Amino acid sequence: LHKVTQYKAGKASNFAQGKRRYDSKQKGFGGQTKPVFHKKAKTTKKITLRLECKECKTKKQLCIKRTKHFELGEKKKATGGY
Predict the structure, then answer these.
(1) 20 to 30 Å CA-CA from 34: which of 11, 27, 54, 79?
(2) Close Cβ partners of 58 (under 8 Å, ≥ 6 residues apart)
(3) 45 vs 29, 31, 39, 48, 71, CA distance in Å?
(4) What is the DSSP letter of 78?
(5) Residue 81: pLDDT above 70?
(6) What share of the chain is helix, strand, coil (3-state, %, to 5)?
(7) 3 state SS of 37
(8) DSSP-derived secondary structure letter, 66
(9) What pTM did the predictor assign?
(10) Mind listing the pLDDT tens digit for each residue in 10-65?
(11) What does the alpha-carbon distance between residue 48 and residue 62 come to, in Å, rounded to a whole number?
């Protein structure tokens, strides 16, 4: 049995090699040095679930299809009528 959560990307590090290189290239005069992406075509993201085993605490990720709206958790029974 697994504990299921939705995967969320971590905070980007300032000391990753790409970020260090980009920052040093941007320094000084000369404007924007690398292309800035504008042609966004997708309106959805692929959903990734993070499964954590309840016994041995191992974690694995499971990718599911694209969707605009995603909610985790079981349906609650509606209580009371009119």
Answers:
(1) 11
(2) 52
(3) 36, 31, 16, 9, 14
(4) P
(5) no
(6) 10, 30, 60
(7) coil
(8) E
(9) 0.67
(10) 999 999 999 999 999 999 999 999 999 999 999 999 999 999 999 999 999 999 99
(11) 6
**Residue at token pair 């191992």:** 58
64: CB partners within 8 A, 6+ apart: 46, 47, 48, 49
The DSSP call for residue 70 is: -
Which is nearest to 45 in space by CA: 63, 67, 62? Answer: 67
Tokens encoding 27: 């320094």
**From CA 64, how far away is CA 49, in angstroms rounded?**
8
Structure tokens at 67: 């969707």
| Chain-centroid distance, C-alpha 32 | 27
